[in-house]
Records
---
Amino acid sequence: MDKARRHGVQNEQQSEPDNGHSVEQESGGVIRQRNERAILAAAERIFAQHGYRGTSLQQIAEQAGMPKSNLLYYVGSKRKLYVRLLERTMTRWNVMLDNISADDDPAEVLSAFIRSKMQISRQHPESSRLFASEILGGAPFLQEYLRGELRDWVLSRSAVFKAWADRGLMDPVDPVWLIFLIWSSTQHYADFEAQVLGITDRDALSDDDLEDITRFLTRMVLKGCGVKAVELSQ
Amino acid sequence: MDKARRHGVQNEQQSEPDNGHSVEQESGGVIRQRNERAILAAAERIFAQHGYRGTSLQQIAEQAGMPKSNLLYYVGSKRKLYVRLLERTMTRWNVMLDNISADDDPAEVLSAFIRSKMQISRQHPESSRLFASEILGGAPFLQEYLRGELRDWVLSRSAVFKAWADRGLMDPVDPVWLIFLIWSSTQHYADFEAQVLGITDRDALSDDDLEDITRFLTRMVLKGCGVKAVELSQ
DNA sequence: TTAATTCTTGACCATGTGGTCAGTTTTCGC
DNA sequence: GCGAAAACTGACCACATGGTCAAGAATTAA
């Protein structure tokens, strides 16, 4: 079972022999590695900004510093390039989907959850925007992923939250809405960056800003659903 | 000062005589009204789904049930159509930007704010997604609006929140982050509808779901920032 | 050095793009 | 009914699109 299927990305079946496209740690020569890195970086930026349809290979090729035909030599087609980027994003996301159990401390788990979400939004804003663009367009490539892998993840976390509520460690809020609240409020700072910067009249958010926001969100969530906060070295 | 400027949408100067495009309550004959309504509805859907670049006039024309040349007869150009949609959205948004004062009750104001935001997300999901798509792409047309009108609105609300905090009616949280929290968590249900539906395994969110979510978000926000909730007929 | 493999590229193609325009049809005030 | 204004439309244009291909250049393995 290859990664495309594991991640539920609706890839067209490509019966070609594996040319290294579906492996994360890239194989192939040093030239290929360098060029593919440049391509993926450029493509992610532009797909995130203009969506799948609104992106042209010509533009990606320019930003990657090579003629369009060379781009196509590496990526095969626009579709394959896009799917590959989605897969890479889902892989990154999965790093965060670590296991928790009902025995863990709610405050610690929720804090860590919010913090890591904020960090991902900061470290990979283009990935975040690419994902947002895909969902905004109705998730044509990610239906399977959403209804499968991601749904399972949410359900299992929900069970843990429920257990915490039953044991009186937090209020009996709907776990799914809670997860959505955390997702939306954290991703906002990547996806709506233009709005955030415009309103706060900044060129960029500093590390201090991010820390500030993270603390704010953590406090709102913990207090909001009745979890006693762990004291952090404030 | 026409509406385009009032709303800060970066329209190209169109020195043509007013043909009714920049007036909300449409003038012109009944045929024009009917056709423009169809066009705007179709265009909003498709722009929201595929972004500005990813949308073709051909597709809009089909959905609006007329040939492309007829479409262009009404809207002038793709740009003008897009700008017009943004203006309409900003106008709708403004309905919500009603005045509040430091003398109002925090719980009531915040509750009403969240509720109206959720209702707009429900009544005009395409508008919400259009706006999201524009921001995601770096807000090329809305820079002025964000840094002007909307920023002013946020700053004035912030002052009120600050006053409430000073009077001990709520915790001294950063008002701007609080506004972003409310915006993001409510708009999520329009913009990320595909994700919400996929994960909750539904075809659509019911009115009861929406009421449920609204209550959840209200409770989280009020409790989270230490506002005593008004009792609602639960 | 040689031979195979990988890489690079411009020319090219069918199709789609936003937009124009001339000419026709329909609607509407009188 | 008549004339003007509004509405409609197919043909057309220059250009961009995703993608192919053949042929050459660079790299690597023997």
Note: The radius of gyration of chain B is 20 Å.
---
Amino acid sequence: MVPDPVTEPEADTGLVTGDEARLSAIPSLAKSLHGELLARLRDYIVEGNLAAGARVPERILCERFGISRTPLREALKVLASEGLIELLPNRGARVRQLGAEELVDLFDVMGGLEALAGRLACEKITAAAYDEIERLHHEMYGCYMRRDLHGYFACNQAIHDRIVQAADNEPLRTSYANFAGRLRRVRYSANLDENRDRWGEAMREHEEILDALRRRAGTELSDILFGHLRNKRRAAAGRETACPPDAAAGVAS
Amino acid sequence: MVPDPVTEPEADTGLVTGDEARLSAIPSLAKSLHGELLARLRDYIVEGNLAAGARVPERILCERFGISRTPLREALKVLASEGLIELLPNRGARVRQLGAEELVDLFDVMGGLEALAGRLACEKITAAAYDEIERLHHEMYGCYMRRDLHGYFACNQAIHDRIVQAADNEPLRTSYANFAGRLRRVRYSANLDENRDRWGEAMREHEEILDALRRRAGTELSDILFGHLRNKRRAAAGRETACPPDAAAGVAS
DNA sequence: GGACGAAAAATTGCATTCATTTTTTGCGAG
DNA sequence: CTCGCAAAAAATGAATGCAATTTTTCGTCC
């Protein structure tokens, strides 16, 4: 089940909304050893090193991370509260696998959070931050024109991330990072490669996003963003299989 | 400020969205001993038995709950990830006190979540569930007319809770319960007693809420709910002092 | 050959123990 | 009397140990 036990746990997938956000959001966990382990273990699971509904072997992980069971179990409890794993009484932890229905629910929550972020961003964003988003948008458009999928994803992710940052709301950032992390386990990127219609649609939606943000039209941006996530969800449907233990995915549309 | 300081700390404010929701949301924690302790400790803190920024004494709590330090520390880690307490390296846990800015942020997130709940509820609510909300609304109106503050709070809370339930989205429920729990530590209820204008305004907003819900106008309801929370936030401002260790508050407007 | 059941092995949950850091206490100097 | 510093006391973070439950294994019976 584990494809390559020799792979080091901290393979970087280039996702911006990862642990930095989570760690910076709660400074108390930033430098503690426990926080470190928590982040590493979370990555280990999110990156798919453990099979879908598989058991989380304490002993093995203890050896792998070079720690005792006590801090590991503490981390497991936290990951369970985050919804990443499931704790069965006297039966240990299992990697929680997302069914189609829960995946849909998670997308909706992401949509709600992005909608909120957009609304708040319209109230608080600085001119400089807006300019940066506009720049990213044009860069993304360039990627779209030359069919650079990877670059497009990166820009897209960066834009959504900047909007959340611009909302300037730490609880929101933390929650957003949490849900984004849960969705990272599913692979639904690269759909645009086969679904050019969706790609064009997404690009048009981003035009609307930028326009609403420029006009600081919070309510409007809120609706657009929620719809945007809904469409992303729709595009991802059918491909909502839980992530096989081979690779992580980017959150993009 | 507070009309009745003699109120017992665990005065039931009609808050349905408490631990039952949290527990039922994550079934793995429902019946385990750890889950039990987690809920108890959370209540213990939320109800204000510990001072604002005070240290969380492990020893004392171990004796109080009749357990060892290991499970207690596990629970503390989880509560820290929920944002209820703060973990300082080598310095133990402290009850996180909400500054004015973070309180505002939390209100906004609650607004975003309620907005999302309203949107989803319009898509999924059953006729029976709507009827129940309508009934509660009229009951609340009755309370309003006869100036029954307590009954009004209970109905108000029940309505918002039903909307979240109607959204039929478990991650949303869990997140909502989490943020509601964090806000429970601040006391901003009973403001309506001195602020009759706000009371009337809130009642009018609830009329709009019901109307939008009846028409299943998701986007509209979403906006109304966010604005409703914004106004609640405004009404609570100035009273955002951290909760002294004597009483809990109800989440109502 | 497959199924049932008991014993062995492993695993979980929690308590206890140990090293390290922090906090308090106590004493002496200014 | 106050300040500073060193030692004692307490508390934290993590490791180990132990009882209880679960999972696996292996032998037996049908």
Note: The domain at 19-95 of chain B is CATH 1.10.10.10 (Arc Repressor Mutant, subunit A).
